[in-house]
Amino acid sequence: MDKTNIRRFSALFxxxxxxxxxxxxxxxxxxxxxSLADGDGYVTTAMLDYYRARARGGVGLIITQLTSVSxxxxxxxxxxxxxxxxxxxxxxxxxxxxxxxxxxxIQLMHPGxxxxxxxxxxxxxxxxxxxxxxxxxxxxxxxxxxxxxxxxYVWDFAEAARRVMEVDxxxxxxxxxxxxxxxxxxxxxxxxxxxxxxxxxxxxxxFPQKTVMSIRQKVGRDFPLTVRINGNEDVEGGITADEVxxxxxxxxxxGADAISISSGLEYWSTLxxxxxxxxxxLNISVxxxxxxxxxxxxxxxxxxGPELAxxxxxxxxTDFIALGRPLLADAxxxxxxxxxxxxxxxxxxxxxxxxRSIWRSCTVNPFLYKEAVLPLTPVRSxxxxxxxxxxxxxxQAAVLLAERGHHVSLHERDTELGGQWLVACAASGKQGFxxxxxxxxxxxxxxxxxxxxxxxxxLEQVLVMxxxxxxxxxxxxxxxxxxxxxxxxxVVQANDVIQSxxxxxxxxxxxxxRMLGMEVAVLLAQQGKEVTLISRSRLGGRKGPDEKITxxxxxxxxxxxRVPLYLNTTVLEITEDSVISRLEDEVLSLPADTVVVxxxxxxxxxxxxxxxxxxxxxxxxxxxxxxxxxxxxxxxxARLATDT
Length: 644
Ligand SMILES: Cc1cc2nc3c(=O)[nH]c(=O)nc-3n(C[C@H](O)[C@H](O)[C@H](O)COP(=O)(O)O)c2cc1C
Description:
This protein is α/β, with parallel strands linked by helices. The protein is built from 21 helices and 29 strands. Helix 8 (about 240-255) packs across helix 9 and helix 13 packs parallel to helix 15. Flavin mononucleotide binds next to strand 4 and helix 11.
């Protein structure tokens, strides 16, 4: 236990009050939706495990994920509390969190426009909006909320609040940010009504205000109630800081016990879960302004690391810190801070793999949503395991296999560990990604795992070492471009440019519109290069990106940096000084002194085939099986380690 480190975070570990609720520290788990509820909105065992782990990790209060208050409007696989039938499950959830020493608040929500996040809507649902505006012509059915609807939703919220109180939760939170129904009423960007619920700040806040008052009538003056609002919507015509302060004051007098400040409209902007490129602590300044105007405490979220958290609580800029993704990355974060174990923290990278629509997980914590398998059980008969490849998958597998008690060695062809992840770390704004390699390196040291660098493992070497198991994590290499090209043209790979292994000359054309192509184009434009980007399909890939926040941030950078974008454009030929391509039925010639290729990667899997039948067990993992994102790589490693 490092006593100096413990003193460093003393402000965070002072108790604090929200209304009558006393919390043991200033760290709150921010509400975070996941798909752990069953299809009907009930609590599941996996959800209990997930929350238990976070409660055990030392956080003072857990605010649950969004919980639907109205039967006709809910996000699939998220919690619901629109009927008494959900109360037994909710009670189990509350008990599970209490048993581990944390308090619990249930976040109540009507999704409103959050339903736009779904690829398609169930037939019975419509997207409830304050007013139908001209842009709402897309495929989704919209429904303009009437005054009668408002009365009904106010009632729904109050009834849900009664249930929250009756299942012995410690508090409830009203979700009024990120573009859910209440939030769209607060926002001048989405609320253009002309009745008593639109127009002035007082009118726009009326629906949330009535909701708070109605909840108060139902649960009494003492039941702790927080309201979460946006401090910044990150859209043109969105809420201003002055208005946020006015809204907070009105909500305080309506009966809120704390105001929580978040930001962003989930379907439009980038700040709901600010990506790696966003500044740290981006909501602090608005939160501070709100705090100055209120008597009740303020909660602040949004990329707040431990040092900053300590400083802003110490300086009374906020009373509580809501931690979101950092607690997905490391459920034990509060305990590690409290007991000075800073080196052990698995730092969140803000890579937003936890927000992917298709494969949602955490890069640095492959056991997210699978907490039941932890801690890993020790093996009865340790095996001698060679891990070939020191990228993320290989390093993570080596660490976990060694933690289970196997005798592991790690072999890397390069002179440095990290593989493709080193490219990620070199991209603009991603320096923080190196924290994960450092964490894995420290774990390899702690476990005394022999690491052989600059070692190309051959079949012969494997046969000499006679391991019981070979884990092949040899990764992938960039794809080449299959078009006619002049011998004298300068064609380079995006990875080499990002890692500064190669300098581009003159005018640059980037080929490839997925994340890597967008990143390299941003990097070059930031360096003042003249860059054009060509993509065979739309930006983000043919089906679109499956994590939209980081994508939007990159797209915005490309536009701000004025990078010309040629989308749905096919490259036909690369000449000495141009890229010839086809856009619809036009043939274009784009001047290019350097062509940067960013069109994906292909597996390096030769060792897998060579070893088959010669070693008792061979397991390929990571990109050498199928190129994927970093969270998929570490998840593959974790699955192998739990099964081997
Ligand atoms: C996976 C995920 C789900 C989220 N779901 C919710 C939610 O249900 N309700 C809510 O108010 N905020 C939600 N948020 C926003 C977080 O509460 C938090 O404000 C945001 O992640 C910024 O904090 P952080 O930088 O500490 O992660 C979600 C964020 C993430 C990453």
